[in-house]
Amino acid sequence: MHQPTITNESLGFSIMLVLVAIFISHKEKLALEKDIIWSTLRAIIQLLIVGYILKYIFQVDHEILTIAMVMFICFNAAWNAKKRSKYIDKIFGTAFIAITSGTFLTLIILITSKAIAFTPMQVIPITGMIAGNAMIAVGLCFNNLGQRFNSQQQQIQEMLSLGATPKIASASIIRESIRASLIPTVDSAKTVGIVSLPGMMSGLIFAGVDPLEAVKYQIMVTFMLLATASLSTILAGYMTYIKFYNERHQLLINTLNK
């Protein structure tokens, strides 16, 4: 079977698609040219750096380096998730704990069940997939919480004045925020194989793996994404809501009116 290869010429032709997007943005006055160019350059630089780092880690194959890379991925996922939190300051710690907890629990189950081996070639790519998905869900959770607390200030104040605790007053907001944050992950799981052929499954098929074997791996990945995103988002939601109140259990109006 012919193995597909990507040459420098192939990459050169593929960048023409980006130029088409830039041209359309300029012609339609969408003002996205700088963002597209910056995103493209950043992606190229980041991927090249990560490629060289992974090549070294795969060759060394050391447990400490593998764990360090997993922590690095979780750190960056938390850093990007906290950017969604315009209503709350100092939220990085919460994002890091939520994403790292969900990621490590999933990895531990996969490794102990021998679904994957504790090698950098398997652990690091899996970590990237599940932490990246958790990052999106947690970031959405922060944003949803802020918007809902902002729009429902009056109802919350009334419940607090009637003697409700912050947890009781926030219960519906937490539930709705978590539910809304998981919609992309749930919808992705619903349409996998029908609308989309995910990257891991497509990559295995490209590499010549039997499609049914590739499907098994993709089912495992789907379970991982759902589990990690759910756990991380639930942790983030219940660790974050209290930050909208002061030590006297009063709603922080100034925070919401930023």
UniProtKB/TrEMBL annotation:
Keywords: Membrane, Transmembrane, Transmembrane helix
Keyword set includes Membrane: yes
Cellular compartments annotated: Membrane
Residues spanning the signal sequence: none
Bilayer topology: Multi-pass membrane protein
TM segment ranges: 6-24, 36-58, 64-79, 91-111, 123-145, 189-207, 219-241
Pfam families the UniProt entry points to: UPF0014 (PF03649)
Lineage top rank: taxon: Bacteria
Gene Ontology CC terms, in alphabetical order: plasma membrane
Matching InterPro entries: FetB, UPF0014_fam
Family: Belongs to the UPF0014 family.
Protein name: Iron export ABC transporter permease subunit FetB
Underlying gene: fetB
